[in-house]
Specification:
The protein is of the alpha/beta class. The protein folds into 3 domains: 2-135 and 303-338, 3-Layer(aba) Sandwich (Rossmann fold); 138-298, Dihydrodipicolinate Reductase, domain 2 (2-Layer Sandwich); 348-429, ACT domain (Alpha-Beta Plaits, 2-Layer Sandwich). It contains 14 helices and 17 strands. Strand 11 and strand 12 (292-299) form a beta hairpin. It is elongated.
Length: 433
């Protein structure tokens, strides 16, 4: 039986999980592929820990570039993260005509165009299933399983940290500040949670999915990103009263004007399956013109769920490493000369329905003034509640769809009313129907 020699760089959580699952299920992989996929080399700064995990069954070094240069290694698995050394490692592996597997969403989102071009020139594969949604096979689904479809839009809950926080806020009536410490204690959030809670991690993953869905270059700098740190518990409660659940949603749509790329807190109807994805789980909803809506759900992180995706890429390479370019799935799902540089719409040009909350003086005429401003901008109201308050009153409105720049103009006029106190809260809404 042929053997595929794998070199893992970074034997941390995912690297350790990959080694463990491959060792445990190696016979199963061989039955599927006719190839013995075997970790033969490891690079990690902690040689002692690497020896302990592998029981000395592999060649271990603390020099990642030595592993990349080793002629005995067929595939380099990059699992160290970051976008500096990791980029150098991946490009050097490609230069040495080695196939690459990575779980590094930031690397692919920010430098994938360069990396895929280099791989194409050298005739090697760069696989990255584990970079998006952990163990959920969403890359393969978009690139291959849904290949007969024109993808119209997709929306995903693709950051487990923020989903855990929002679930706790909704179920326990807690504030963001109440929950973030618990999320850190349980290991759901990093000591510095900025990448997660400000939506950057989700934006990395979104731009990868959008590029595959629409056949466009990776455009991370064009993603509109808004996090959850300013989200009030009262807005989660009011949304629930109105039949909605607030999630940090990553959304991309293909429209006649261009492509939408955005990550932000979003009200979703509670009857939608994706609205009921709780805790640290992930889900991606994809709308294809032929298949309709399809939902992909599972663990978005963790040692073995992510290892499952890494090994799925290794299986593809085992089957296709000697194939020609036509037989392999293109890196972004479309032939390189068919990737189109589609325009990304600025957030001011997107169309959405909105949730608005304002605090106003409790006296007649305020609601009439607000509704007139909205009507003057052709913004119609879908629902309204006015919860009881001891001083003044919260007014909560749901609007029908309008262009964001029109909504922002109306909000500025409402905030200028003498009876409206402070800034309005604006959240976008998606029906996902």
């Amino acid at each position: 039986m042929k053997q595929l020699n794998v070199g893992i760089i970074g034997l941390g959580t995912v690297g350790g999980g990959t080694y463990t699952v491959l060792k445990r299920n190696g016979d199963e992989m061989a039955r599927r592929t006719g190839v013995d996929i075997k970790v033969t080399h490891v690079a990690d700064r902690n040689i002692e820990l690497a020896n302990e995990l592998t029981s000395g069954d592999v060649e271990i070094t603390d020099d990642a570039f030595a592993l990349v240069a080793n002629p005995a290694v067929d595939v380099v698995v990059e699992l160290i993260g970051g976008i500096t050394i990791a980029k150098d490692i991946v490009l050097k592996a490609i230069e040495n005509k080695k196939h690459v597997v990575t779980a590094n969403k930031a690397l692919i989102a920010m430098h994938g165009n360069e990396i895929f071009l280099a791989a194409q020139k050298m005739g090697v594969m760069v696989a990255y299933e584990a970079a998006v949604a952990g163990g959920i096979p969403i890359i393969k689904a978009l690139r291959e399983g849904l290949g007969a479809n024109r993808i119209e839009w997709l929306a995903g809950i693709i950051n487990g940290t923020t989903n855990f926080i929002l679930t706790e806020m909704r179920e326990k009536g807690l504030t963001y500040q109440d929950v973030i410490g618990e999320a850190q204690r349980l290991g759901y959030a990093e000591a510095d949670p900025t990448f997660d809670v400000e939506g950057i991690d989700a934006a990395h993953k979104l731009v990868i999915m959008a590029s595959i869905a629409f056949g466009m270059p990776l455009k991370f700098d064009d993603v509109y990103t808004e996090g959850i740190t300013q989200l009030a518990q009262s807005d989660i409660k009011y949304a629930e009263e109105l039949g909605y659940i607030v999630k940090l949603l990553a959304v991309t749509k293909r429209t006649d004007k261009g492509v939408e790329l955005r990550v932000h807190p979003t009200l979703i109807p509670e009857k939608r399956l994706v609205a009921n994805v709780d805790g640290a789980m992930n889900a991606v909803l994809v709308q294809g013109d032929a298949v309709g809506p399809t939902l992909y759900y599972g663990a978005g992180a963790g040692a073995e769920p992510t290892a499952s995706a890494v090994i799925a890429d290794l299986i593809d390479i085992a089957r296709l490493k000697d194939a020609n370019d036509i037989q392999r799935a293109p890196a972004l799902g479309y032939q390189a000369d068919q990737v189109q540089d589609l325009m990304v719409l600025p957030i001011a040009e997107i169309a959405s329905a909105y949730y608005l909350r304002m605090h106003a003086t409790d006296k007649p005429g305020v609601i009439a003034a607000v509704t007139k401003i909205l009507a003057d901008r052709a913004i119609s109201i879908d629902a309204m509640i006015q919860p009881a308050a001891t001083t003044g009153a919260d007014i909560v409105l749901l609007t029908h769809e309008t262009v964001e720049k029109n909504m922002d103009t109306a909000i500025a006029e409402i905030e200028a009313l003498s009876d409206v106190e402070g800034k309005l809260v604006k959240l976008r809404m998606e029906s996902l129907g």
